[in-house]
What does this fold into?
Amino acid sequence: SKAGYEHFMLKEIHEQPKGITDTLEKRLDEKGFIKLDDIRLTKEQLEDISKVYVVACGTAYHAGLVGRYAIEKFVKIPVEVEIASEFRYRDPFVDDKTLVIIVSQSGETLDTLAALRHAKKKGARILSITNVVGSSIARESDDVFYTWAGPEIAVASTKAYTTQIVSFYMIALYMALKLGRMDEKEYKRIIEEIKLTSGKVQQIIDQDSKLVEIAKAIMDRQHGFFLGRGLDYNTAMEGSLKMKEVSYIHTEAFAAGELKHGSIALIEEGTPVIGIASQENLFEKIVSNMKEVKARGAFVVAIAQEGNTEVEKVADMVFYIPKVDSLLASILTVVPLQLIAYHVAVLKGCDVDKPRNLAKSVTVE
Ligand code: F6R
It folds into this structure.
């Protein structure tokens, strides 16, 4: 049931603080270490891994892009992220030293399942991140990490995404500690930071009325852009997908530095550009990219960390997320974008929970 919410999508956005807490805290032992009951990878097996592939579709693929960042940073193993429907036709180099991480909310996406089987045949070890216990992908994997998001009904994925990101951080922390590539203090610090993201997501949700105003300002446009750098580029991709699928506004995501290599030609008077500026080390850069589009007439909406008021000089509207370690900002930055897409869809009278042409689980190629 929708438990009093107008749509499942809104309900599921609101369930994210709980999803984050459940996925993390139920897996911490009394001493605060991550215990992963369904992952049997030994230290020796982990030492043997020379490469990781993350394979998924759609929103799960975007979570994988964040996962790459976490694994490369903490575990220091090279990671490639691929769209499942491309992976198996490319004949990727996969062997018994490859770990393939499959990400799928439903656990039934056909292309993703086929990629799993392809990699398995080549000898890879398969670890899946899924939300559905006993799904095909869970059953065919060597190791399973369940996102404890609860059932996701709305076609547009929201709480699955944030819990997938948390799952990646936990897997990366777990591996890094086991392999001795991260000291315990840093490990504990990051876990504490992840714990705090749940309350911070709630703080974002509590400011929803500001996001309604942003939605009203852009709802009549035919197209728009999302800009970000580093982890914020991944969020831009996910924000763009949400906007397209529920509100039918054509949006595109750009790595902000890439814009001037062609696509900036599309910016016209009033074109909405949502710039995500959560990464401290890239803050000045993204602000200057916002300036570039502003100078060409764009209507700029910025998503920034509290206190970084400098964005107000370049943005027409600003939404502040609570202060957060840049490393973990992806858990937060997506939430205002989910809500903006939701409100645009509602304002336009779209069928939010069942957008046209879409199915919840894609079991055809
Ligand atoms: C977008 C969305 C899709 C799914 C994709 C993969 O909101 O829901 O892009 O993320 O179809 O689905 P799963 O995760 O079930 O494999």
Q: What stands out?
A: The chain has a mean pLDDT of 96. The longest helix spans residues 184-206.
